[in-house]
Amino acid sequence: MLKMNHRLLIASLLILLSCKHQYYKTRNAYAIPGVNNNVCKKLYGNVLLYAIFVDTRQAKPWTSYDISSTMDSIRKTVTWLEGKAKENNIPLDINPVMHINKRDTIPVDQNLYDESLWKMLFSTPDGIDMTDLWANAVARKAALAFPPDTARVVATKNIISNRERLIARLRDKYKTDNVALMYFINNYYTEEISVAIFTPSATKTEFCIVSFKYPAVIAHEFLHLFGALDLYISPFNKKKKAVKNREAIIQAYPNEIMGITHRQIEKLDISPLSQYLIGWKDSLTEKDRHLLVGNKLKLYKY
After folding, report:
1. Which residues 6+ apart lie within 8 Å of 25 measured at CB?
2. Cα–Cα distance, 113 to 138 (Å, whole number)
3. What is the per-residue pLDDT across 105-161, written as a single tens digit (0 to 9) for each?
4. Quick one: which of 72, 82, 31 has its CA closest to 301?
5. Which of 46, 102, 181, 242 has the fewest Cβ atoms surrounding its Cβ within 10 A?
């Protein structure tokens, strides 16, 4: 987690939930909870990037230009991600879709439950639950744009009552298992954060909230949904060992997108560390394993 004073140094937050420890043991090796897990498993094949623009009283109202330019940034992000996949011989086809309401309007109205996203998350011990409720409220309002479920092959109709049911409808509609649900709020010149939540959970579907339209930030949060971890030095890295580890990662991979987001996306890369986490590599070299988890853990081979 990082909150910067300069608006180009964008905060990115990965909330690790439902996992008491960062790693869990399986088959005599250790797995990282966010990897190959939840709705967004491996970044591979056909992927839906579903963008929901949300108007809140705590952020600037969306204008036509803001939405158009943000969609341009999303498409630029998709082109960059698909290009990186091609460089690594990974088949990847990302379909960026913008949610549109019944009357051809785009933003969904849903105020945050505090003065800002930052405060909603951190002003009370229930911040994550509040953010979860907010995301489900947006999903229910977005569901009004969908016609009733008329599928005849299932006994129970899909009534969209929360984020998980919305994703289920999107999987049906777009015929893909990988749905990256991304909420966008309009904070193009303020100090805010962008967050990815529930990425390692086995009970709640992951999602992210993006406060800015910089392609590097969008790509950073998108990769979180598929298991990538923050690789920069954050206020949570209080121990000298953790700080040295992050410094070593930055030195080894200075253009790693999970380590920095305030550069132009064309100047950034996806390192072997993140490639392993998003499913592009099934293992790491000894050097990279040491950078990611140290010498003591043997990582699971996917």
Report:
1. 31
2. 12
3. 899 999 999 999 999 998 889 999 999 999 999 999 999 898 876 665 554 555 778
4. 31
5. 102
Span 167-213, pLDDT tens digits: 999 999 999 999 999 999 999 777 889 999 999 888 899 999 999 99
DSSP assigned state of 181: E
Alpha carbons 19 and 61: distance in angstroms, whole number: 36
Angstrom distance (rounded) from CA 93 to CA 175: 13
Q: Give the integer Cα–Cα distance in Å for 224 and 32.
A: 13
- The closest of 183, 154, 184 to 169, measured between CA atoms, is 154
The whole-angstrom separation of Cα 13 and Cα 81 is 20
- Check whether 215 has a pLDDT greater than 60: yes
Backbone angles phi, psi at 60, to 5 degrees: -70, 140
Q: Which residues pair with 58 in a beta bridge?
A: none
Residues linked to residue 299 through DSSP beta bridges, in sequence order: 30
Cα 181–81–185 angle (5° rounding)?
A: 35
Tokens of 48: 């839906």
Cα distance between residue 208 and residue 210, in whole Å: 6
Please, what is the end-to-end C-alpha distance for the chain in angstroms? 28
Distances (CA, A) of 275 to 36, 87, 253, 264, 283: 12, 12, 12, 20, 9
Continuous H helices in the chain: 64-87, 117-122, 127-142, 163-174, 215-225, 240-252, 272-277, 286-293
263 token code pair: 């550069």
Integer Cα distance of 154 and 239 in angstroms:
53
pTM given for the model: 0.90
